[in-house]
Structures are given as C-alpha cells and as structure tokens.
Amino acid sequence: MKLLEERGVIRKRVALLDPDALDLGLQVFIHVKTSDHSITWAAKFAQVTRSLPEITAVHRMSGDLDYLIHAWVRDMKSYDHLYQRLTKNLSFSDVSASFVMEEIKATTELPIKKGPQMGTQFRRPSSSLTARNFHACGLNVVQGTAHHPPVT
Predict the structure, then answer these.
(1) Which range marks the domain in which residue 9 is found?
(2) CA distance 9 to 28
(3) For the chain, is the Cβ count within 10 Å smaller at the N or the C terminus?
(4) Cβ distance 110 to 145 under 8 Å?
(5) Phi, psi of 141 (to 5 degrees)
(6) Would residue 152 count as lying in a domain?
(7) Overall average pLDDT of the 103-131 stretch
(8) Predicted pLDDT of residue 60
(9) What is the pLDDT of residue 136?
(10) ∠ at Cα 119 (14, 7), nearest 5°?
(11) Average model confidence (pLDDT) for the chain?
C-alpha cells in the first residue's frame, strides 16, 4: 500500500459508510443548466457546491447539461433545503432533479487490467505496477479491480 501511495496511485484511504445508518435515505442527481459560462460564475459555483456537505460529486458535462450534481439527503424536505442553499446566490437557466428509486450498482472501485501490461495504464511515467505489485502491497486483483482484504 505504501508503494502505491508513494507512486500516487492511492490518493486517499476512506471508510465506506451506510447511508441508511446515517438517515440519508434519498439520493438525488441534480441537473444544472446555466447561461453564464464565465470564469467568475464557475468559480462561485465550485465554491458553493464544495461548501455543501450533502453534495458528494459535481461534474461538468458535455451535451444538454452543464453540470451534474450527486447528493445524499434525508428526505424531500432536506432536498428542498439543499436546493434553496444551492440556488440562493447563483443564477441558473434550469435546475431539475432525478431521485434514485433503486441503486443497482455503486462502487468506488476502478477497473484494473490484469497481467504484465498493467503498468502502462498508470499516468506516472516511472510506474511499473503489475498485479504482482498489488498482491505484494496486500491488495487482491479480483475481476480486474483492486480489493483490500477485509480488516479482521
């Protein structure tokens, strides 16, 4: 693990929490369109979205949307509160939301190729990582994804 951290492959270690245990029963994707594409607006949007703890991801998109926001809230009333804080100081041409009815797949795992050519997919030029390196660090490569063994 230390080798992978030193090489910048592992950016951060986290604990995956159960949203239900934290009373976060509503997952929402917020679709944002704006007519203001200035650097000033984008910086303020980034500042506002980063300051809202319910928001777990923000992506600038191609196509019909400008931004896609992912958030976890307790219920519809909590979503409305988030919406009010998001739109308070920012102008949007359109904001809509889609609420998750069923989560079929959600993972933080990244696909990792097995085999000797694995090292070529990392952006670090000095990297020569292989599945063997992952095993040496205590990670298992299962179905092309690195898994840390459970803590006992």
Answers:
(1) 2-15+108-147
(2) 29
(3) C
(4) yes
(5) -95, 110
(6) no
(7) 66
(8) 98
(9) 54
(10) 45
(11) 84
Q: State the number of CA atoms in the 13 A half-sphere of 101 facing the CB.
A: 0
Residue 95 and residue 132 share a domain: no
| Whether residues 41 and 77 fall in one domain | yes
Query: CA of 30: how far to CAs of 70, 80, 99, 108, in Å?
Result: 6, 12, 9, 20
Strand-pair partners of 33: 94
| DSSP 8-state symbol, 150 | P
How many structural domains are present in the chain? 2
Buried b vs exposed e over 55-70: b needs ≥16 C-beta within 10 Å? beebeeeeeebbbbbe
Q: Write out the DSSP string of 72-139.
A: EESSHHHHHHHHHHHHSS---SEEEEEE-S---------B---SGGGGGGSS-TT----HHHHHHTT-
Say if 49 falls within a structural domain.
yes
